[in-house]
Amino acid sequence: xxxxxxxxxxxxxxxxxxxxxxxxxxxxxxxxxxxxxxxxxxxxxxxxxxxxxxxxxxxxxxxxxxxxxxxxxxxxxxxxxxxxxxxxxxxxxxxxxxxxxxxxxxxxxxxxxxxxxxxxxxxxxxxxxxxxxxxxxxxxxxxxxxxxxxxxxxxxxxxxxxxxxxxxxxxxxxxxxxxxxxxxxxxxxxxxxxxxxxxxxxxxxxxxxxxxxxxxxxxxxxxxxxxxxxxxxxxxxxxxxxxxxxxxxxxxxxxxxxxxxxxxxxxxxxxxxxxxxxxxxxxxxxxxxxxxxxxxxxxxxxxxxxxxxxxxxxxxxxxxxxxxxxxxxxxxxxxxxxxxxxxxxxxxxxxxxxxxxxxxxxxxxxxxxxxxxxxxxxxxxxxxxxxxxxxxxxxxxxxxxxxxxxxxxxxxxxxxxxxxxxxxxxxxxxxxxxxxxxxxxxxxxxxxxxxxxxxxxxxxxxxxxxxxxxxxxxxxxxxxxxxxxxxxxxxxxxxxxxxxxxxxxxxxxxxxxxxxxxxxxxxxxxxxxxxxxxxxxxxxxxxxxxxxxxxxxxxxxxxxxxxxxxxx
Length: 568
Prior knowledge:
The chain has helices at about 5-15, 30-35, 50-60, 75, 80-90, 120-130, 140-155, 195-210, 220-225, 225-235, 270-275, 330-340, 370-380, 395-400, 420-435, 445-450, 455-460, 475-485, 500-505, 515-530, 555-565, and strands spanning about 20, 40-45, 65-70, 95-100, 130-135, 160-165, 215, 240-245, 260, 280-285, 305-310, 325, 385-390, 410-415, 440-445, 465-470, 510-515, 535-540. With about 575 residues, it is α/β, with parallel strands linked by helices. The strands form three sheets. Strands 2-1-3-4-6-5 form a six-stranded parallel β-sheet, with helices on both faces. A six-stranded parallel β-sheet has the order 9-8-7-10-11-12, sandwiched between helices. The protein has a six-stranded parallel β-sheet with strand order 14-13-15-16-18-17, sandwiched between helices. Helix 7 links the parallel strand 5 (about 130-135) and strand 6. Helix 3 (about 50-60) packs parallel to helix 5 (about 80-90), helix 10 runs parallel beside helix 12 and helix 13 (about 370-380) packs parallel to helix 20.
């Protein structure tokens, strides 16, 4: 078989069921191999960047490999943003891209990226955005390279990998004569029993002495499927649960021990519980910028920090934990709960501040929809097992604050790399991976305008994602940053098209809404239709999301900001 046929057959064998990519001459053989596959669904996107985001979405809540591809040169370079997302957010993704003919290296041929004689160096660029990048130079190595790549993607903390396929290897008569299915042999990252016993002893002692313990849980626990184990841990040992934005829904947010989101745009109840804690048990949490109030130096002052993570590299980045446990979250939490069970008796119930953010009355004077009310409606109407993705922007803060997830629902923000439109496009891959789950994207008008043309891809392939556009005609977060930092704003306002008319022109359903009642009617119709749908919601410009630079509260954050301004 030919090289791309071998790659497709190998991917079929490890359970890949979708491929997202861009058309091109160097990818032509791969496109035909996918056409003839009976197991992998090929989806050609309007732009390769969208394909890389879709591969991330496909891998987001599965234990399957996301797969994207592109032609050589500029097509391949368009994959970088999605691969950077997969790198920062721990998605197992394989990218395959074409590469100019090896016998013409350094001659400046079309799409050449050898790095020789003033050509771009794609090997260096892919190496910088993946766990490992491969250049396939001998067709006899095809299966070995594919096997190493997919194992690298899954081992330890998951992430992206990449394979260059030179044009020479795709020529007629150049064949893989030694095909074998790739073997996935990924060893789980399990906790060291001695370290488990050590940490369990520390927690048991804290419980015996009446110390206040909180669990701070992130996306690593969600990816691990650790929800039942975490629920057992917090209930049995009466530990209040705080989550990062990406940890939302690991346990139902209506649970009596669920305190809320701990982040700079999070809940005062979570900030209060954290302030009062003596011990912080971080699980599947990288302690990144927004979850630590811009890496606040005194965040863990007078607190004992226990950090559980699948990657050694996550320990001691900005903070030095008192105890670390290298492990996938699910087996780690199960082991800690078992060890505590053997030594801890009955634990008295703890009281935490109640949460009812979806039901709270929001007062506003402007006539247009308040984004907080829009978020509340989305949360109340999101079906069981629904997934809500928030793209980069102010709407993310509203959704994270006001949407309360039930068990089985998921929420994902734009991750540490944080590209705009990452989830506008990634939602399509997510829906392909989970056809039975409702997938809703909350996005700004800026995010949607950046890459909303992939709506045509959703229509062509009948992928019923719902996009809710928080439309206020401006880059809201950038404007707020400018005002706070420079006391003026500029170049942040723009005119939008009629997004609803555009959606209908693409063959999707489109609604423009100006009241909450109109939105709920349109959202209900979108949920019932099973069709790709865009809802253009006109929101007020005057609402400002909850935000503080301090876990002591909004007022303290404002005071600290003013003090810093005067000091400077």
